[in-house]
Every structure is written in structure tokens, then in C-alpha cells.
Amino acid sequence: MNLTFPVTGDNYGGVDRFWFIHEDDISHLDTNGMIIPKEGAFWNLGKATKYTLDFSNPGQVKRGGTIYSPRLTGTVKKYRPELEAVLEQMRGERFALVIKDKNGYLVQVGRPNELLTFSADQATGGLPSDSNSYDLNFRGETTIKPIPYLLEIETDPETPTDPVTGAPVTITVNGQPSFTVPAGGTLAITTEFTLEYTIL
Predict the structure, then answer these.
(1) Rounded to whole angstroms, how far apart are CA atoms 158 and 55?
(2) Is the Cβ–Cβ distance between 37 and 21 less than 8 Å?
(3) How far apart are CA 78 and CA 124, in angstroms?
(4) Please, are residues 116 and 109 in contact by the beta-carbon 8 Å criterion?
């Protein structure tokens, strides 16, 4: 058993987004331990202010085994009545999570009887320059570590999608249009030659 895993490609810290499901909406676990929602139930999408989502999962070895203490924290800016109404419904309730990190990996945190309790604390600050925000917190104790989530995440069809802004970009080679990349798209070029480019 070798512990030799060199990092290839980029390695980004932080959490991109997460999904949460209430304990009453969980049907069962499949054979791989992944959560299956009840019929008609969905995973709920969660986002926070950019670069504020943080996940940790410290473990403590005890006589009966290792106990993990998963915690997801983040900040949502600006008090709004509609936001407060959603948070009030969630406070004190228990959820399982699927977390997507900045490298694109999905992990499931929690399972029936080992769920995370939600809390949200509000602070306006005293100065106009202070942050008017909520600090979000999912916290619990589990006997298993997060596992890769390999299923499609079923969300409510009315869940808003990320807006795509900007116009398509046309890539020319030797003066001839060769590729068109839509806003938000990616063009990967693999070549043995050195490339020179100009952004206009």
C-alpha cells in the first residue's frame, strides 16, 4: 500500500457549491451508500458569497472507532425578508449534503441517522463599510467519512441556472475563422509548438 499520489493539473481550495436534502425527503441509501430522494423530492441547491464556503471534517479516534465532525460554513450577504424566511425554515433542521469542491469533485456528507444540523447567524455590522450578512453552518457527527457521490443530482426543475453573459468569441488561425467559443465555454488546444496570441 503506497501513499504516492503526485498532483497533476490544477489544485484549487474551497467549495464551489453544495446541495442539501432534508431528512424527511430521504428515501434510502443505494448499494453504494448514496442517498436516494423520495419520489417527488429533490436536492436543494446552495450557494454563498464567493470564496466563503469552507468544508472541514476532523476525526477523533475513540474506543468504538473514529467519530468525524463534518462542518460546512459560508456567508450570504445582505438581509432580505425572503432570504430570512428560507433560513428560518431551515434553522435547527437536519440535512445531508453533496459538496462540490473547486476541483470539480462531488462528495456526500451525512446519511440517515447521521445528519448535519443547520444554523444561520445574522449580523449587520455597525458601519456602512461593515458586512451585512448571514453566517451559515451545517454541523454534525458521523461514523463514516464523506463518500464520492456518483449519481445525477436531481434538483427541482424550477432551480435557477447560472446566468451566462457575454458574446461568443471567434478564434482565427492564419486569418481564417476556425472556432467559435460560446460565453462560458472552454477551448483546449494541445500542440507541440509554442503559441503566441493577442487578446483584442
Answers:
(1) 27
(2) yes
(3) 8
(4) yes
Q: Which helix (H) or strand (E) holds 85?
A: helix 81-90
Banded model confidence at residue 114, pLDDT cuts 50, 70, 90: very high
User: From CA 127, how far away is CA 113, in angstroms rounded?
Assistant: 43
DSSP-assigned beta bridge partners for residue 15: 101
| pLDDT computed for residue 109 by the predictor | 98
Q: Retrieve residue 140's grid coordinates.
A: 454534525
> What is the sign, positive or negative, of the torsion defined by CA atoms of 158, 19, 153, 5?
positive
Question: Does residue 157 carry a pLDDT above 80?
Answer: yes
Express the helix, strand and coil content of the chain in percent, nearest 5 each: 5, 40, 50
Q: DSSP of 127-187, one letter per residue?
A: STTS--EEEEEEEE-BSS--EE--S---B-TTSPPPP--S--EEEEETTEEEEEE-TT---
Element (H, E) at 88: helix 81-90
Q: Are strands 44-46 and 35-37 parallel, antiparallel or unpaired?
A: unpaired
Whole-structure pTM value: 0.78
User: Which residue type occupies 24?
Assistant: D
- Nearest-5° angle of CA 188, CA 99, CA 157? 85
